[in-house]
Write a structure and sequence with these properties.
Layout lengths: L1 H25 L2 E6 L3 E3 L4 E10 L6 E2 L6 E2 L3 E12 L6 E12 L3 E5 L3 E4 L2 E4 L3 E6 L22 H7 L1 H26 L15 H15 L7 H20 L8 H7 L7 H19 L6 H18 L15
Parallel strand pairs: 2-11
Antiparallel strand pairs: 1-3, 3-7, 4-9, 5-6, 6-7, 8-11, 9-10
Helix pairs in contact: 4-5, 4-8, 5-7, 5-8, 7-8
């Protein structure tokens, strides 16, 4: 009798859990759409991925991660995220990820279905069709003759352009002569001993980045409910490191543009995934009001430190010239 009761109780628990997951999934609506279905070669439009959900229902959704290109020859130029509250119902919000896409090859492409992860399982969008049309050329119009050359007067600027090397040589000789005269004059006027300061040692960029990351960790910002400030400073440190390490304009680029600039850099997939986690979570916190868990916050810091350690440039020791013993 007791075993039968326990079996019925377990069955009821499983059914109630499934009902809760299903209810949570039904509270989230996902969608994918593009601005237009037909574009010309090189024209840019936006791909919108949205998730509509209650604000206070505790519903969470994980957006799909897009690569640099979709649907074969459809490229992602940039992307951004935002959150919009329903004007008619303040309890409903829509989180959107918007990507600027384009293509330089004509044809018909299918943007695939994207899967959103929710507490109740995956929700998928419908595939989208995009047609890239060529620019029509009117071959019925007659050809025109080439215009005759214009008569241009030979001005001083033209002479200067033709004799630029001579002018630069004369100016360089004057400047060099003036510098030599000034050096001789100063040496004769002031015969004091010149104190040469030793050059300060150059601190490697990875050491600077690791010091800043340590200082940020010790400030414990996210533990003091300053999560947005924590991720903002964390990504600023990483963007400084990327600019100096890979010579890209990381502060002027979105996260997707950064990965596009790093596409051909010698970076392993493990390091790319670590960097992607740091930047994408920061974007969600700053633009989509994401509330990461303490483990997510610590993982971002750990991934940032690991990325800097694993991608640092080797420090070349100074070359010491040895004199031959005679």
């Amino acid at each position: 009798m007791i075993k039968c009761f326990i079996k019925h109780l377990l069955l009821l628990t499983i059914l109630l859990t499934g009902f809760v997951y299903q209810s949570s999934a039904q509270n989230v609506e996902v969608d994918a759409r593009i601005d237009r279905k037909v574009i010309k070669i090189g024209e840019q439009i936006q791909l919108h991925l949205t998730a509509r959900m209650p604000v206070k229902d505790g519903a969470q959704v994980e957006f799909p991660t897009l690569a640099d290109s979709i649907a074969s020859k459809v490229l992602i130029v940039s992307g951004k995220a935002d959150t919009v509250v329903d004007k008619n119902n303040a309890g409903i919000e829509t989180i959107g990820h918007h990507y600027i896409i384009t293509s330089f090859d004509s044809g018909e492409y299918v943007i695939p279905s994207y899967a959103f992860r929710t507490a109740g399982g995956e929700l998928k969008t419908q595939p989208l069709k995009l047609i890239v049309a060529t620019v029509a050329v009117d071959t019925t119009k007659a050809a025109y003759d080439i215009k005759q050359p214009l008569v241009v007067q030979y001005t001083f600027l033209d002479w200067l352009a033709d004799h630029l090397a001579l002018v630069i040589g004369i100016e360089a000789a004057i400047i060099i002569g003036g510098v030599i005269f000034l050096i001789i004059y100063l040496r004769r006027k002031n015969k004091k001993e010149v104190v040469v300061e030793e050059p300060k040692p150059i601190v490697p960029i990875h050491v600077i980045a690791l010091q800043k990351l340590t200082e940020l960790r010790n400030r414990k910002l996210w533990q003091q409910e300053q999560t947005k400030q924590y991720h903002t400073e964390l990504t600023d440190i990483m963007r400084d490191y990327l600019e100096n390490r890979y010579v890209i304009k990381a502060h002027e680029q979105t996260s997707d543009e950064i990965f596009t600039s790093l596409r051909y850099m010698d970076i392993t997939d493990e390091n790319r995934n670590a960097l992607r986690q740091v930047l994408i979570l920061a974007d969600l916190v700053k633009f989509a009001k994401e509330k990461p868990t303490p483990q997510d916050n610590e993982q971002s810091m750990d991934n940032a430190v690991a990325f800097v350690n694993r991608t640092q440039q080797a420090i070349q020791p100074p070359i010491v010239k040895q004199e031959d013993n005679k």
